[in-house]
């Protein structure tokens, strides 16, 4: 049979055969097998200046940095016509002329061999080569360590400490020492201080950090405009120096009779007008006294004796010549008496003790001897005991010992030979400051040097101005004030702080510059955030969880305001913080009420009143305004308010005990304890503690059901039986003791 034809599936051949394009070369993967040289570059050689040579030297030969000295035409390089030189010929000839290199050209130009090298040439060449040899290496090292060109490194700095001026910031410290700011910040963090590049650090911390880089710094204090005014006053020319009146400060414990003693001296009755019978502001006045056979003026400064007025007593001791320490004969040495003794010792002024209230029945010889012993214990050994401290027995009520006290003051002042300049620029100390209607900011000051005149330009801390008027201690307007005179001036732009020094300057511009500098420093201090360290960060977290008592405080004078702020600042505890949101001098107005509403504060006024609009706004907004005239009333109320803010203390009050005598298992209910109440009372919904064999096995469970037979009961008393179901607890056995108790909240006290 004929085989069938097999047809192959052969692809058809295209009519036009196109050549295949070239194969793309696939690059091989790069494999690095170690370092290899990419390129070689020569370092940039910076030109080094060569020392100047005297061209007028006869026969002087010039020389290049490598070729050594060569012959020059007679007359040196500056010969007539400036003949051909080796450098000019070098440009005109090819590289191959005159022999190999510059030496060959030098022979070709000069047509004579080199002259012998002189000793000076050798020294200059050696110096030049030494500088050129290590220049590139030293330049790169300094650039790397210093952080860039132009910055010095610790290795290349000059010997001695580096001077840095205050205030010291990280950025300025880095620029002055050449140490990178990041390195300084790293050291600060390791020492526990978190800062930024613009943060200011104290001098001790800056010195400590830089010593770790082997760098010693010397901090130079910043020269301020205020310091310049003080220095100018200290260097002033004395015009008219003569004897001045003494300044006497009265110190002592509260209610020991200081103001009454002064009333007897000047025949007035100030003590009866004091709120609460205590002095609450520093006052100064001049009293004409007759001591011996002569009349003279004595300036007395009366200070508060209450424990809150520590700052006022310290200021009074600093401006005084003699301190009179008043001690009550019926009371003895008290805490503020000891504090006053320390103030007098710190001021290094003479001290006279006035043993007051000697007319009281309690002032027996035994008590007086005891008080003298107390004084001796604090370094005041009486004269009658062989010491040097004068103790004058006085009675302000019976006018006893007053003249003897004045004679002793006069004698003590004469021994000091007190003098002052009566003609130069005035200076002194601020005792108090307050706002007065019609006069504005008024500063009560003690003139200590010079002559203060109406129209003078003064600077007092942050306040400045031109003296508008001068009022003496008796309310009389005067044209000028001399040393040891207490006066009140107006014309200031704001209230100064008590204790600030005042100076008379030449112009209002100078006064404004010094005051503006103080204001700027105070503003920066207020806005500066407290420095966060690793040590106190957890304290700040805990402080944020404390309760806060916010206050808005207004007072009559700056000294009282300062005292209030100090007292309230010390009142804070671990659980309640007293925060003064605003403190100012003057009456209470609508702005104070608005601030109190925004901050949830209580408004406190000391020796001030509130306006009608402020009272109306406070009543509408529910703001509490408290007015006081005695400072310890404020502290008492603040303590009561803080006590009310304390979290109550939780205490357990045991109600009774029950003994389990039978246990019943009830489906869907659990274990029911059949109990006998042994003592006290068992109350429903009270807390239960289960005791087995004298060991507490379960506590803080709630008594869910209480039944007396089949009836629900609110309570079951001792001697009765009951059924008890404890919520969530069924592991009850016969013999267990069930203790019934409840948690009560007890108010805490500071």
Q: Can you tell me about this structure?
A:
- This protein starts with 62 loop residues before the first strand and ends with a strand.
- The chain is flat.
- With 750 residues, it is of the alpha+beta class.
Main features:
750 residues; alpha+beta; Rossmann fold; 6-stranded mixed beta sheet; 35 strands
Strand order within the widest beta sheet: 9-10-8-11-12-13
Show unreliable segments: 55-104, 145-158, 268-281, 305-310
The helix content is 25-40%
Please give the largest β-sheet.
6 strands, mixed
Outline = flat
Q: Can you tell me the CATH topology of the largest domain?
A: Rossmann fold
Distance between the termini: 129 Å
Name of the CATH class of the largest domain:
Alpha Beta
| DSSP, total strands | 35
CATH superfamily of the largest domain: P-loop containing nucleotide triphosphate hydrolases
Give a quick summary of the entry:
With 750 residues, this protein is of the alpha+beta class. It contains 19 helices and 35 strands.
SSE diagram, text form:
Blueprint: E1 63-64, E2 68-69, H1 86-92, H2 101-110, H3 119-133, H4 135-146, E3 162-165, E4 168-169, H5 170-177, H6 181-190, E5 200-201, H7 203-211, E6 217-220, H8 225-234, E7 241-243, E8 247-252, H9 258-266, E9 283-291, E10 294-302, H10 310-318, E11 322-328, H11 335-347, E12 351-356, H12 365-377, E13 391-393, H13 402-416, E14 419-421, E15 427-436, E16 440-449, E17 452-453, E18 457-460, E19 463-472, E20 477-478, E21 480-481, E22 486-492, E23 501-505, H14 508-527, H15 537-543, E24 547-555, H16 558-570, E25 576-585, H17 590-599, E26 602-606, H18 612-621, E27 625-628, H19 631-645, E28 649-666, E29 670-683, E30 687-692, E31 695-708, E32 711-712, E33 715-717, E34 721-726, E35 737-746
Parallel strand pairs: 3-6, 8-10, 8-11, 11-12, 12-13, 24-25, 24-26, 26-27
Antiparallel strand pairs: 1-2, 4-5, 7-14, 9-10, 15-16, 15-23, 16-22, 17-21, 18-19, 18-23, 19-20, 19-22, 28-29, 28-35, 29-33, 29-34, 30-31, 30-35, 31-32, 31-34
Helix pairs in contact: 8-14, 10-11, 17-18
């Amino acid at each position: 049979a004929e085989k069938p034809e097999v047809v192959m599936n052969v692809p058809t051949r295209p009519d036009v055969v196109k050549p295949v394009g070239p194969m793309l070369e696939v690059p091989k993967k790069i494999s690095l097998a170690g370092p290899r040289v990419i390129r070689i570059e020569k370092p940039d050689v910076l030109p080094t200046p060569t020392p100047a040579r005297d061209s007028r030297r006869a026969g002087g030969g010039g020389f290049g940095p490598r070729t050594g000295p060569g012959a020059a035409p007679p007359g040196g390089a500056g010969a007539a016509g400036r003949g051909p030189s080796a450098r000019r010929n070098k440009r005109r000839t090819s590289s191959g002329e005159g022999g190999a290199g510059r030496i060959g050209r030098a022979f070709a130009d000069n047509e004579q061999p080199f002259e012998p090298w002189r000793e000076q040439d050798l020294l200059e060449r050696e110096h030049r080569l030494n500088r050129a040899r290590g220049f590139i290496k030293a330049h790169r090292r300094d650039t790397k360590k210093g952080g860039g060109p132009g910055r010095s490194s610790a290795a290349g700095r000059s010997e001695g400490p580096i001077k840095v001026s205050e205030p010291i910031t990280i950025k300025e410290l880095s620029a002055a020492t050449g140490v990178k700011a990041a390195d300084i910040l790293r050291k600060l963090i390791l020492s526990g201080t978190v800062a930024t590049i613009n943060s200011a650090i104290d001098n001790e911390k800056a010195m400590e950090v830089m010593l770790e880089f082997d760098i010693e710094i010397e901090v130079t204090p910043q020269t301020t405009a205020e310091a310049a005014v003080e220095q100018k006053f200290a260097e002033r020319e004395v015009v008219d120096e003569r004897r001045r009146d003494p300044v006497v400060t009265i110190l002592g414990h509260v209610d020991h009779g200081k103001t009454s003693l002064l009333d007897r001296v000047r025949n007035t009755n100030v003590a009866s007008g004091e709120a609460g019978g205590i002095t609450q502001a520093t006052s100064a006045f001049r009293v004409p006294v007759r001591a011996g056979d002569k009349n003279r003026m004595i300036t007395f400064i009366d200070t508060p004796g209450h424990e809150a007025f520590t700052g006022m007593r310290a200021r009074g001791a600093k401006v005084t010549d003699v301190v009179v320490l008043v001690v009550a004969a019926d009371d003895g040495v008290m805490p503020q008496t000891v504090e006053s003794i320390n103030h007098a010792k710190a001021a290094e002024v003479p001290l006279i003790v006035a043993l007051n209230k000697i007319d009281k029945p309690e002032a027996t010889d035994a008590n007086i001897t005891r008080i003298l012993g107390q004084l001796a214990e604090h370094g005041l050994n009486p004269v009658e005991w062989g010491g040097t401290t004068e103790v004058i027995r006085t009675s302000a009520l019976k006018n006893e010992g007053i003249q003897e006290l004045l004679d002793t003051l006069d004698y003590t002042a004469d021994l000091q030979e007190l003098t002052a300049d009566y003609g130069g620029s005035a200076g002194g100390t601020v005792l108090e400051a307050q706002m007065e209607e019609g006069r504005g900011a008024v500063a009560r000051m003690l003139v200590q040097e010079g002559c203060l005149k109406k129209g003078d330009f003064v600077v007092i801390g942050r306040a400045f101005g031109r003296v508008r008027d001068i009022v003496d201690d008796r309310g009389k307007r005067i044209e000028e004030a001399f040393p040891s005179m207490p006066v009140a001036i107006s014309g200031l732009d704001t209230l100064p702080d008590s204790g600030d020094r005042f100076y008379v300057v030449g112009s209002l511009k100078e006064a404004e510059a010094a005051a503006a500098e103080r204001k700027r420093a105070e503003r920066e201090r207020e806005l500066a955030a407290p420095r966060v360290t690793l040590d106190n960060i957890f304290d700040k977290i805990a402080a944020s969880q404390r309760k806060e008592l916010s206050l808005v405080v207004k007072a009559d004078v700056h000294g009282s305001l300062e005292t209030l702020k100090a007292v309230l600042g010390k009142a804070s505890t671990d659980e309640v913080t007293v925060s003064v949101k605003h403190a100012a001098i003057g009456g209470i107005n609508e702005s104070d009420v608005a601030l109190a509403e925004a901050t949830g504060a209580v408004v406190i006024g000391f020796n001030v009143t509130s306006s009608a609009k402020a009272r109306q706004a406070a009543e509408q907004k529910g703001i509490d305004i408290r007015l006081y005239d005695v400072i310890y009333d404020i502290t008492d109320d603040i303590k009561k308010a803080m006590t009310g803010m304390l979290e109550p203390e939780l205490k357990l009050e045991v109600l009774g005990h029950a003994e389990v005598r039978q246990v019943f298992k009830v489906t869907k209910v659990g274990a029911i304890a059949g109990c006998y109440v042994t003592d006290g009372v068992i109350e429903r919904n009270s807390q239960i503690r289960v005791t087995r064999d004298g060991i507490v096995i379960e506590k803080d469970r709630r008594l869910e059901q209480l039944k007396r037979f089949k009836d629900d009961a609110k309570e079951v008393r001792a001697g009765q039986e009951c059924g008890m179901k404890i919520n969530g607890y069924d592991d009850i056995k016969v013999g267990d003791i069930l203790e019934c108790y409840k948690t009560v909240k007890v108010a805490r006290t500071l």
